Amino acid sequence: MPRYRFSEFILSPRRRLLVCNGRERPLIPRYFDLLVFLIERRAEAVHRRDIFDRVWSDVVVSDSALSQAIRTIRRVLGDDSREPRFVRTVSRHGYRFVFPDVVEEDDEGEWQIAAVGSRGEATSEGAAADPFEPLLQRVTGAATANGQEEQREAAELLHALGTSEALQRLGTRPRHAFARALLRDTRWDVAEAGAVPLAGQPGAVAAARELVLLRLRRAAAVVAARWTGASIGGGLAGVLAGGVGGLILAAAPDGTAPLAVAPVLAVIGGFCGATGGAGVGAGLSVAESIARSRRAIVLICGAALGGGLAGSLAQFLGRWTLMALVGVDVEVGGLVEGLVVGGGAGLGYSLATRGAEGGLAAPRGRRRLGVAGLTAAACGLAALGLTLAGRPLVGGTIHAIAQASRGSQATLTPIGRLIGEPDFGPVTASVIGTGEGLLFGFGLALGLTHRKRGG
Q1: What is the domain extent for residue 170?
Q2: Rounded to an integer, what distance in angstroms lies between the CA atom of residue 171 and that of residue 160?
């Protein structure tokens, strides 16, 4: 693996070092990988799609994440986007490393590397005597649509100068909550950034609110796409569960259900699965987009909240519809079931994607199947616990409704007899409930982690 020498810089992929005149220039891992990738393919303009596939191969991020990475690399290299020496923007395509004299050499032997440059080196020549104040004024000012990236750049420069001193000077001046949230958000993109606590600080609640809004605005398109995918995945899982259940009922030796029950149950299962997938998927997507620390707890809470809201809606509509149309009053679950299954989905998903950083997890191939499998297992266990506690899911609810309705052919008693029980007993309820949870979790995770081709 060679190292690259250009201008006053040396880039060593093997040692993961960028050095300028003997001093290390820190970059976070993904930005370092991006710089290496651009230099490796310096003979061509690299498409944005190829960059996302290489540098963010395990997560999905918004387009602004790439723009921010390029801006940070330019700052570290001392480059100017208007007259670039190193990285040039290729309109409607991507980026190209344009410095002509890049020397590849063996990366052997030891180097003499001085300590990391002082914080003050982050400022340009001719900067004001107090480099903090102009940047603080920028991050606390009202941002226009075009000025948001300038504010982020100012926050990154404040981190480079010194996070602790920047926070101390920020104090409680007007719009300090927004500025603190911006500093908290950008700390993950600056290698030398320090901690930016919110709890116990002035305006903590307002700063937390601003932080959530910042991250949601930047990831809105990605969140919407993942929410849609989760809803589709959950719906398809419900169609499969309902359709297979209907076919088993129709084919059971002592069953009286006609074959037409299969599409009916498939539609019911698809609706329930899509509703649950939409709720849990929305909760997971929003939680993952705003969580950079304590990720597992945030994901579990977000998924449980989304599942609970979807379950409450289904519970209300289900009972109202049954009473209004057929006059049947059956206890229909929803809130508790949504909370438990959603929490299980959040737990399984967070464990399976715990290595994902800097975006919303989107593994490929076998890793994606592994995420779906672990999420399915967690949802299956949650569903089993609910069934054992006497809280059935879709299949058990359909059986209860069928029993309360005269002449219904959708009772699941024939399935119980196939399993070995004389009726729809606890074993049958547990098997059906666990199966529903497994299928829902698997479909949910596959839909949630789907990424567009080339994305």
Answers
A1: 131-202
A2: 18
